[in-house]
Design brief:
alpha+beta; Thiol Ester Dehydrase, Chain A; seven-stranded mixed beta sheet; 43% strand; elongated
């Protein structure tokens, strides 16, 4: 198993769980998003500052495979395992792994595009920031 490009530790909060005691499926998308934002910060990009410059990264497609449910108070790491660029899209491959037993709980493939002043474009700032992580 290769080392992920980035990982972020998170703890499940009880209010994120459904009646069965599992994390509600929609919260996994939040976990993936938080991790991508933290990854952006690590490479020197700030989501809010980008917006004030007219650059908005927006999710265009999400594919999540749920494997093993997280439960209240579980600690887990959410990772960016791989980053690709395909045309104007950046494709984030992400995983959620429960810490207590290293169980793979979910895998995601999330496609992100950028709008520059409302127009679909590939801003160079992302290619520069992601240079060491992008796999062609």
């Amino acid at each position: 198993m290769t080392q992920p490009a980035f990982e972020h530790i998170i703890k499940v909060r009880d209010y994120e769980c459904d009646t069965q005691g599992h994390v509600n499926n929609a919260n996994y998308q939040h976990y993936f998003e938080v991790t991508r934002h933290e990854f952006l910060e690590m490479v020197g990009l700030n989501f809010h500052q980008l917006h004030t410059q007219g650059i908005d990264a927006v999710v265009s497609r999400v594919e999540i495979r749920y494997k093993v449910p997280l439960r209240g108070m579980d600690e887990f790491k959410c990772t960016v395992t791989q980053l690709e660029r395909a045309g104007v899209k950046y494709i984030f491959h992400q995983e959620i792994i429960r810490l207590k037993d290293n169980a793979l709980c979910a895998k995601a493939k999330i496609e992100v595009v950028n709008l520059v002043n409302g127009i679909l474009k590939k801003p160079e700032v992302f290619d520069e920031a992601f240079a060491e992580y992008i796999q062609v």
